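fold-stage: in
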Amino acid sequence: MDESTVYRLRAGRVPLLISLPHTGSEIPWAEHGRYRSRALASEDSDWHLEAVYGPIAEALGASLLVPRYSRYLIDLNRPSDDRPMYAGANNTELCPTRFFDGTPLYREGRAPDELERARRVEHFWQPYHGALQRELARLRALHGVALLWDGHSIESELPWLFEGRLPDLSLGSNAGQACGAAGLQAVAAVLAGQRSYSHVVDGRFKGGHITRHYGQPQDGIHALQMEMVQAIYMLEDKAHPPPRPLQEAKAAQLRPLLQACLQAFLDATTP
């Protein structure tokens, strides 16, 4: 695993990169004074996804890219110009100012200004995206194609962001623009062929910045986003302080389906 101050990259041998941009939970010590004390637990992180995906990446020979720092510092799945991802809905920003329940993250008057946002882009956002770009370029040069799987997780119910309960698995392709039809259809078929988890394709989560920006199938780069509810692999209980624990029995049940999705993605898209 190659080390960086802001990310870890394990380079694989097949043309697949698994990116987990919201798994980081650390907030630099120098920034602690800006935040409300509750924020220091990074409760809205995509908890335990490295533990879920790590064995799959190793088994498949896929590359794995994970960040060190919390999305509360900077959201790696937002564009650097901070354009909203989902028009007409509540959105979290490039440098989020609210928890997922809509309450403020920062102490009064301490939210980052334009200069601070630019500093965070330079020191945290750009290194992660630079590594992502270089790894996709390496894979495409070796294999003639590169596949990007952007892995995420979220609580099942978050009224400030969406109504009702989310499906267990939400596959996003930016409405078919980020991935060739064969790859998208192959993964969708795997999801349709099982009954353990509810699922949707290009529903509420069509893919964030990483999927939309890097998914260029006409140039040999195919991208999909998978958003999972945390209840299917870890404890999801608001009464339990974060980080809530991984439930390995649930994760062990989930991994074969995720691996089958990734294998189908590879088989359908690789020359």
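fold-stage: in (second)
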Amino acid sequence: MLPSVATQALEIVKDPDCAIGEFASVVEHDMKLAADILRLANSAVYRVGAPVVSLHEAVIRLGFRQCKNLILSSCMSTMMKSVDLEEEWIRGVLWKHSYVTAVAALHLNRTLHLGFQGEEFTAGLMHDIGRTLFAVLVPERFSEIDPLEFDESAATLEHERTVIGGTHAELGAAFADRNKLPSALVDVVQYHHTPLEATNNRELVALIHAADHVANHLQRFNEPLGYDPLLNPGIQIIAAERGARIMELFASSANEIMNHSLQDAAEAVNI
């Protein structure tokens, strides 16, 4: 699945003593990966101070973990975009939703002080890959399977099982596992609708569930107006583990998080 440069770069960052220069010199051999890292480092999500102009500076700003996550998500998005879709607009809608979810997850992580270090952004990008796979594999039935209403509930998965015999979460997780993505990402893809079923990585799954809830509202209304933060089920799960302060923090900052997510996504590079 992964190009040789990506595989080599991911192997290098396994070493905790890896030198930034060594990593950058490998990534520079893949122009798209290098450009993606530079664009993200200079995006609204990570921009602080003056723009960075070298890959070395971009890696310092982002950190190895986020660069690793970006390589994975960049390779997966490139692969999905290379697959022909009869309805190109579907891929655009799903990619926008995934990016808003990723940015919302990043802002939630920062606001709630959950301690994730980039994996939340990648997980947000990847969580709905099964929906894209439905569009690729059964384009003639996609509108029946997924009307793209972004009004998701437990009935969403049951509807998919009734129509096609399985869910986008199950299909996406099988695809992610087969392509040897990290187990945390596989869990997010499989359980982002049902986080209480996750036996591992539950807090990350719950965070993406929360970010997905936010992104669905923004997808439907394009503004925070009318959103009730107390009804976010992912935040409720995290608060049950970490204490009521989590819900208080989210309730007081939900509008700001949602507005930032919209703004950041609007400025997003096409990674």
